[in-house]
Amino acid sequence: MIIIDAGHGGADPGAKGHGIIEKDWTLEVSIHQYHFLRKLGIQCLVTRERDLLLPPEKRVALVKQSGAKVCISNHYNAGGGSGAEVIHSIYSKSNLANQTADALMNAGMPVRRVFSRKGAGGDYYYMHRLTGSVETIIVEYGFIDSSVDTKKLNVRSFRLKLAEEAALAAVKYTRGVKNSLYVVQAGAFHAKDKAEKLCGELKQKGYEAFVKKEG
């Protein structure tokens, strides 16, 4: 079971920038994630299905009582930065957050950081502090006051793609599936100078390359 939290809502608009209101986009991507996961046969819930104000105590109660293993709390940032951020509890490992960040990056959204934040007596964010045993990550898909980010995020299909990738990362995590790493080998040589020449050519073309000796 996965529960999806559409951040803010109603009288709480969240962040604003470039004519965008955070609560509208969080609702849009959360509803999309819900239907996307249901089509895959994944049990899921969503904290709000329309534009309404959810007081913190009501929001965390929905999460705690859901029986979910994971909660994705969807948000968009503001404040003079750029790139996505994924925030996890100070009491949880960063595996889910890192897998989510990798998925967003692979889908074309640069990731600013993955982090946790400590407050007085525990987690700083109430979605981490008060959601009990449900492992909650806060996903900030980008900065809506950044022209760099909004150039990408204003494309609805891109927003929804990021939401799908975040949802799939949660599914993989709940099933114990780690992100795979594929290594591409461009050549193998007996002469070191030939290997270094090819390595240099690949680097000039923008590829990350190195020479590794075997045997």
How far is the first residue's CA from the last residue's CA? 48 Å
List the secondary-structure elements in sequence, H or E. Answer: EEEHEHEEHEEEHEHHH
Tell me the fraction of residues in β-strands, as a range.
Answer: 15-25%
What is the name of the CATH topology of the largest domain? Aminopeptidase
Sheet having the most strands: 6 strands, mixed
The DSSP helix count reads 7
Please, what is the CATH homologous superfamily of the largest domain?
A: Zn-dependent exopeptidases
Low-confidence stretches: none
**CATH architecture label of the largest domain:** 3-Layer(aba) Sandwich
Proportion of residues in helical segments: 25-40%
Q: Please, what is the average pLDDT?
A: 92
- What is the rounded Rg? 20 Å
Number of distinct beta strands: 10
Q: Classify the secondary structure makeup into a structural class.
A: alpha/beta
Shape: globular
CATH class designation of the largest domain: Alpha Beta
- Give the strand order, joined by hyphens, for the main sheet: 4-1-5-10-6-7
* Total domain units: 2
Protein model, in words:
The chain is 38% helix and 20% strand. It has helices at residues 22-39, 56-64, 95-106, 126-129, 147-153, 156-174, 192-204; strands at residues 2-6, 16-17, 20-21, 44-46, 70-77, 84-87, 111-115, 118-119, 122-123, 135-143. It has a 6-stranded mixed β-sheet with strand order 4-1-5-10-6-7, with helices on one face. Strands 2-3 form a two-stranded antiparallel sheet. A hairpin with a 2-residue loop joins strand 8 and strand 9 (122-123). The longest helix is centred in the last third of the chain and has 19 residues, at 156-174. It folds into 2 domains: 2-174, 3-Layer(aba) Sandwich (Aminopeptidase); 183-215, no CATH class. By secondary structure, it is an alpha/beta fold.
